[in-house]
């Protein structure tokens, strides 16, 4: 057993050493290619030529690395089904395809695949396997993997997966179209969450919408989500501001000599504030959720609980929400997010006939990867010219292309959750790359760190109207101000201060007048009753 492992180790070292020989980058011609109309790569495509099928034609080899056993077997098998479907449907007879299990106990999947001298490798799925393959494969051997980890890509290793940066930048661009001024970013405390937050931060700079706060939470942890939103909503500061405002109004009503009209105005303001727990607005008009649908619904519920609903700040999400039941959550009505186009119905029907199931996104990526590989092998173009065509391809999930960095660019559409729980298409996915779709490449993104809210705070005096002669006597401090607040970097959000007009029909003239007590609000029905500030 030990001798076998030693042999495998030596084989990997020898292969790695061979790849270190100085070679011309296999994608060096990429810069000379022009962007034009994307090529169709759909069901029924014919990649072969008659000469490819004659008896004795040279055999072309394709190797596939997938998890075909263990807990991830279902993932690997769904991709294998789509690859086999594409090969049976489109490949000439002289194409040999071999499958290798990356979860094989002896760990020989990569060396076994390389030993066949394939012209291209499809897979692996997981980042670690992809990095291992990248370190030992010949430099000019192209790989179409299914990982979204940019650090595992490059040197001929590409991915068919949707890069997280695509989804984030697409929705931030939509936020700019909506006229958003300042953004709050909410992300899970994970490596991918920090990376997506870094992307959102970069996108907010590109599209001129400052991210005034970045908050991280523990996934699937309601207590962590609650505490995160309590801070992000400025609940303590807004509660203190509300209490102080009521104290000021109460003190004036009980201690000062007032006209009947002044008493009426102050009393009405006090009554209104007594029906609320908080005062003032948050310093952002949009919330970007970077986690999964379940966590996002939980976050939105607590935002609403603490007085920040979709009317105070619009909600936005990413492709992480796709396939969830988020459309049925009334808290998320009006929210927008970026997702892939609908899967080609021709492929969906074909896949269902073969497997008895509807394809998931990995299956569609696998189908397109197989067709890309077949197209590359039988194309008169060089490998790079075919795979890295800047014009891109129309696959089962719409427009996409591969970059020399190994990253993919996939055109996304923007959808909105309507009031009746259905998805509305707000913006169709781009149909070509003649105009650049994205400005951000994932390998250039650094993970973001948490960032406290940049805010001037809440001053109760800005939200109440008291007699001018008393303003200097009843000044209030500001609550929740961030000392790092820089007005030059934050677009102010207009505060609509509504001053209740006095009415002589409701004047309180009793000398026994007692102001309304400062009781708290019962939140039992907060999810079904909206209280406007």
Describe the structure.
With 533 residues, this protein is α/β, with parallel strands linked by helices. The protein contains 13 helices and 16 strands. Strands 8-7-9-10-11-15-16 form a 7-stranded mixed β-sheet, sandwiched between helices. A 5-stranded parallel β-sheet has the order 3-2-4-5-6. Strand 12 (393-395) and strand 13 (398-402) form a beta hairpin. Helix 2 runs parallel beside helix 12. The longest helix has 21 residues, at 235-255. The model is unreliable at 1-24, 42-51 and 495-533 (pLDDT under 50).
Q: Determine Rg (CA atoms, Å).
A: 30 Å
Biggest sheet, strands in spatial order?
Answer: 8-7-9-10-11-15-16
Oligomer: single chain
In the predicted model, the low-confidence regions spanning at least 5 consecutive residues are: 1-24, 42-51, 495-533
End-to-end gap: 72 Å
Q: Estimate percent helicity.
A: 25-40%
Q: What share of the residues does DSSP label as strand, in percent?
A: 5-15%
Q: Per the principal axes of the C-alpha atoms, what is the gross shape?
A: elongated
Mean of pLDDT: 86
- Per DSSP, the total helix count is 13
The count of strands amounts to 16
Please describe the biggest sheet, giving its number of strands, its sense, and whether it closes into a barrel.
7 strands, mixed
Order of helix and strand elements from N to C terminus: HEEHEHEHEEHEHEHHHEHEEHHHEEEEE
Q: What class do helices, strands and sheet pairing give? A: alpha/beta
